[in-house]
Amino acid sequence: MDHQPVEAGTARDLLLVEDLMLLLLDDRSGVAKGEGTLHWTLGGAVLMELALRGRVETDRKQTVYAVPGPSLGDALLDDAFARIEKRPRYVGSVLAEVGPPLRAQVLDRLVERGLVRRERSRLLGFIPTTRMPAQDPAYEAALLERVRAVLEDGAAPDPRTAALVAILSASGTLPQFHPAIRWSNAVATRALRYQNGDWGAAAVGTALVAQAAAVNVSIGIAVATGVIGGSQAQ
After folding, report:
1. Which residues contact 76 (CB under 8 A, 6 or more apart)?
2. pLDDT digit string (tens) for 70-126?
3. Cβ atoms within 10 A of the Cβ of 18, count?
4. Is the peptide bond prior to 179 cis by the omega test (within 30 degrees of 0)?
5. What is the rounded distance in angstroms from the CA atom of residue 117 to the CA atom of residue 3?
6. What does pTM read for this prediction?
7. Which of 66, 74, 160, 205 could form a disulfide with 9 if both were Cys (CB 3.0 to 4.6 A apart)?
8. Distance between CA 115 and CA 136 in Å, rounded?
9. Taking the CA of residue 223 as centre, how many other CA atoms within 13 Å lie in the half-sphere pointing to its CB?
10. What class, spelled out in words, does domain 16-135+204-225 have in CATH?
11. Distance of alpha carbon 94 from alpha carbon 114, whole angstroms
12. Distance of CA 101 to the CA centre of its chain
């Protein structure tokens, strides 16, 4: 392995998958952008987190291998790692196993952290609905601004922001962020570059970006073929 693990990168120590869900979640409807393939996207974020921490590797055939080590100190990551540790598998198979429970788990974590709140009501008196409005809009706004600066201004990201941009691109949801992130040919080109593993100065090793590219290929295939995943708001 040719890279050093990257530490969790926010003041709140949010996981990459939590930042991703914050950006994808619609405050009013409680539905995420790319809902139909969300478990692939969230699974990709968890796998990317493990790669950033030096706990998984991927070979040229896109087979994922667990890298032994101590507990990751986070129940969600430890559970995902335990699933991966069972045996080496193709990255798409890993995402299919790791991803399905993540939507509910990540939403619960965001509520517990005080970043969103869950508001349940009934439309027309009998149709249950759930809204997930932001409790800390400043954090989400700062996160979105980091992504916007990379895509619109060409700002150099840190590795975690580069990973976030790459996953958002693979998920096919970036056009839905317009006008907060103004969709254009230049933005699309930059996004695809990160999706394909060209992280520039943010790259912390060729092995890591190769893993990132493999994850994003699987997410992209799921989006392109309309794989159905994810559950409705809990």
Report:
1. 15, 17, 46, 102, 105, 106, 109
2. 999 999 999 999 999 999 999 999 999 999 999 999 999 999 999 998 877 676 666
3. 23
4. yes
5. 38
6. 0.85
7. 160
8. 5
9. 21
10. mainly alpha
11. 30
12. 14
